[in-house]
Amino acid sequence: FFSEDRTLHTRTMVTIAEGVDFDTIAREWRCKWSGDNDKASLVAAQKAMTAVLADVKKVDGVKEVQRVVCGGCLDFKVITSLSADTFGAWEAAEFGPEKKFLAELEGIDGISTVETQTYTLMKM
Question: Which of 18, 101, 113, 122 is most buried, taking the most CB atoms under 10 A from its CB?
Answer without folding.
Answer: 101
